[in-house]
Amino acid sequence: MNWFAEVLDDLINQNEKIELDTIAELRRVRDRISQDGGLPSRNPETENLASRIGDAETLDQVAEAFGEIPCEFGFDHITLIILSEGGRYLSRRVLSSLPDEWWAKYHSLRLYDRDPLIEGIVARDHELFLDELVPTDANAPMPYTNAAHSLNIGTNGVIFKIAYPTGVVAAVILNTVKSPQFARSQFRKYREDLLSLAFATCDGLIHFSRIGASTMADLTCEEIHFLRLVALSEDPARALKMDVRYGSAANIQMQIIRKLGVKSIFQAVLIAARRGLIDAAIFHPDEIIGTRPQIAGWDVLQDFDPNNMATHAPGFAEDSDY
After folding, report:
1. Which single residue of 129, 200, 235, 270 has CA 20 to 30 Å from 181?
2. Residues near 158 by Cβ (< 8 Å), separated by ≥ 6?
3. pLDDT of residue 50
4. Claim: this prediction has a pTM higher than 0.90
5. φ and ψ at 291, to 5 degrees?
6. Within this chain, do residues 172 and 90 fall inside the same structural domain, yes or no?
7. Of 17, 53, 101, 104, nearest to 208 (Cα)?
8. Nearest CA to 174 among 143, 110, 185?
């Protein structure tokens, strides 16, 4: 539902007494409509944040504006996670205002093994509230909950997904230490604003963190073969120095790094693995071991000799009708 319609519903339901916040919102809408006929965002700061994100020249600038969203909408922290890259091959997949101490605990305690938020995001597509996912039973405390509480990270809030036709899917998590009822109220009130800012942020993240090309055609068979040798080698450093029949290892590395727009050959291997190139059925001559052919009882296939048809096709005479 359009947020302005929601305000009108609130106005109707209030009957005798109109809340001051409702009056302020109606005045702002009236002024905007009278000026240019457009309906404003519900939060006045939304357009400013969207403009800053859209005009950003670096990913750090996108992240800075993104980090201000919680304060403007009554939450404490915000995180955006790319769940599916849609073939974009991103070098950065998470933006978060959560403190570094949280991520240190998240990895050292292996909280990702039983992260209730990620499990909920993956399992369901609709909007979720954190109190629906994070257990509150005092008799069964979870490491995740304990770690969050120790750093004063709210386990109330909301999660919503955004998806693109290209296959990119992202999840946005808004945390708050305030009550679940507050989180629900704020999200219902600012849903459209938050969605528009989430899309703008995701656009910026994709733009500034893309690495590599989106097709497999950029790499030759020889270059793919080289990446597979490095990936499968027990000694990658030694593999990078090996002699190859189709050019020097150093030149091939430079070509691959340039084509994929990465910083190292190991990053290129990661991209190749993501695309399935390491396991793809692209065979280089070096990888093929010939076996003795046996076709229709022929013991050996001989090269074709136009001066001697018999040698080319044993069992067929030169004057055969065939």
Report:
1. 200
2. 127, 128, 129, 130, 173, 174, 183, 184, 187
3. 92
4. no
5. -115, 160
6. yes
7. 53
8. 185
